[in-house]
Amino acid sequence: MTALDTRPAETRLSKPRLPQWAPLLVVAVAVALGLLAWMVGANIALAVLVAVAAYLVGMPAWSAAVESRRAAVDRLATGLVWSAFLVAMVPLVWLIVTVVKNGASTVDMNFLTFSMRGVIGDEQGGLYHALIGTLLITGLAALISVPVGILAAVYLVEYGAKSRMARVLTFLVDVMTGIPSIVAGLFALSLFVLIFGPAVRLGFGGSVALSLLMIPTVVRSTEEMLRLVPDDLREASYALGVPKWRTILKVVIPTCVGGIVTGVVLAISRVIGETAPLLVVAGFTSSVNMNPFDGRMMTLPVFIYTEYTDSTAKGLSYAWGGALVLIVIVMALNIIARIIGKIFAPKTGR
Amino acid sequence: MAKSIDVSDLDIYYGSFKAVEGVNMTIRAKAVTAFIGPSGCGKSTFLRSLNRMHEVIPGARVEGKIVVDGQSLYDASVDPVAVRRQIGMVFQRPNPFPTMSIYDNVLAGNRLNSKRMKKSEADTIVEKSLKGANLWNEVKDRLGKPGMGLSGGQQQRLCIARAIAVEPQVLLMDEPCSALDPISTSAIEDLIHELKSEYTIVIVTHNMQQAARVSDDTGFFNLKATGQPGHLVEFNATKKMFSSPDEESTEAYISGRFG
Amino acid sequence: MTSTATRPDPTPEAAPDTKTPLALGDRIFRVLAVGSGGLIMVALAGVFIFLAIEGYPGLSVDEDFYRPATSFLGYAGPLLFGTVLAAIIALVIAVPFAIGIALFISHYAPRRLAVPVAYLIDLLAAVPSVVFGLWGGRELAQHIGGISVWLEENLGFIPLFAGPAAKSGNTMLTAAVVLAIMILPITTAICREVFAQTPRLHEEAALALGATRWEMIRTSVFPYARSGMVSAVMLGLGRALGETMAVAMILSASPVVTLNIISGSSPATIASNIASNYKEASPDGQAVLIATGLVLFAFTFGVNFLARYLAGRGERRMAR
User: Fold this and answer.
1) Measured between alpha carbons, how far is A333 from A328 in angstroms, rounded to an integer?
2) Which of B1, B82, B85 comes nearest A3 by C-beta?
3) What is the CATH number of the domain that holds B91?
4) pTM score, two decimals?
5) Residue C246 sits in a domain of what CATH number?
6) pLDDT tens for each residue of C109-146
7) Which of A337, B110, B142, B218 ranks highest by number of CB atoms within 10 Å?
């Protein structure tokens, strides 16, 4: 064993190492420093920053002193990666807390059942008209997008497969997910202006714009679900003499219907909060309008926006109230989508 | 430079599942030791525990001792990174880094460890390692080309060059030829013969004839029964193992009655 | 490749109108499916076409509409500048976080944490942009206003922070921060997919050479994920370019071109400009706004196109 004496330090396996609890200790110290900063007057964000910085400086320094430079770099990377996540959570929590705090006092049964029709000064108003509008417009949008989206996905998976049109379509659908919502609104506007003239505003136009935004999502998620259905299932059906269209309708789609529904609900939750296209095409109004084909219609996101731009204290509080209602609806849809997804998950055995 | 490895009462766990049980052996320095046995009996798992690569899977742990040159690999003060620096590994499928040239591939390990290498120093290491892997003549004119552009056998020799460039004590090889054609396989086997004068080599192989050709000592692993952990049935000099093994099950495996 | 039930008819004189109702259903269904696909492509083309038709007159209306500029280009120029500036600053802020969080989910987090973490980041994507605008314009802006003052005092030599800082915080900086938060989910999602797809074999090659976890990521994960990361960044860029409401509710806009992101007069973005000026626009004004919308669409379409193309190329290259 004399050969190793030429480089003893490098071949020695036992090197000084920080104990397992070292990171936790540094975290504790960093948190303490952050609390200290908060107590001497820094606001919460700054205090968090202090704590994070303390960890990112302290841990690698300690490691460099005890272990090695490479280990220190590794620990710094680990620290950065954890901090990235924690810091990204700050705005999410902050936003939700703010919306709940500011909106809770405004939302009550009156707020939910009154419209803004004829409301002046400090009178009680509400977002009833906006809720109705959102329901109608989003519902119509879903009515358009769901069949078109599902059928297009059926084409991509069942009929088109390797064809050129299918590849082009998939690519375009992917690119379509990036359409700015205002452009979708302008498209719907242009379409209707061409037919009806420049002053047209109608709820259905909003539905058209929203469908443009929903369809790519529905197509992609339905496509994924359809692909998950094993070919054996289809072939078993064909072997029984069932024609293709019946197979798709009665075998393939029902197998993955849970996933398709999840995709649709998620798509709805995404567009229900869209403001720009509705602002542009459906306009805004203070009364309830039940007819999507005639005249301006108020929607929840546009309600929030108009109350906000009102610049009065009441307007602002109504905006927060509307925001709270909207967030609750969106989160509820999200949760419903995930629950449906879990219940009906295709048993792929993955 | 090469060291021997002493293994005592080693158990390997994945979570609460015991994969390998009660291994005792001494792996001789500057010799080739082969592990044979049917699939799933723990040979590769045991091999990977020798350089702590099994820890890549979360929840994997060992009980028992592995001692290399008086140092226990699993001591609390030992960093797995340091272990792998000393005990290199070549994998079943050649895995040169796809975005690096041949030159950079060989140096990959060294670059991690030293801050700045002079170009002349780097060139020397590359040449020495590629020569050691019997690859120098074939690639010396295209060191800048991508590592993935070589044939399977050449890629595997590149991986061997990369492993020996950091001058480890021990070289572990996990079925290094199973993805290669017979000609490349025999080239690698010749290489192993040359390498053993400098390194301790441990090789896992499915191919008994290869074990017989290449190794000095052989260990036979088997499962006691399905669902049971794998264990070392017998560990002996290769000549003895393949002519008159001690255990009946070894005899049965070698003569092809199961496996 | 057809798998319908009709067997090949041995008698060649079988008349076409003896096709069974089932085969007819097949044809109808197929037409519907193909038609839906076609409809989508037509709609996409339609966006270009209709915007062009309605927007074209906006290129040459009465000079008054372009105030203070005198031509369409003069009007749209600062808007385009504002759009790109906001998007780039948002990217600069968001991308390091996205990479860090994606790495966290794919390589650092304990397995049981990874799924909830991914879900939490996706939750950020569920918040509607108008709510981001509300929170950003009211709550976050105040805090950033305070920080802007500090930035002006200490880093005022950098043109970005030249000041005078607007305490209200209704500045480009706040808008960019909110944009960064909004594009974080999609950039993170794509990065984490490519990181997770790094072949185990290459990761183990690096580890077996004695690499630390970070060194392994540098050696095996990043080179593999390069085109995926570029694609993720570009998709984030596309999203930031098109974001409307959050910017509209945060910025106090004026038609200037400036790098100063903490002052009270910032250029609007194309999208926020359309949203803000829509109410009072006359038909001519409407046409101008639609024309700017076409510019935005062309721009974001190009960015998204490139991003998806790069992603596809990277996938095909790695599948070798």
Assistant:
1) 9
2) B1
3) 3.40.50.300
4) 0.84
5) 1.10.3720.10
6) 888 888 888 888 888 888 999 999 999 988 888 888 88
7) B218
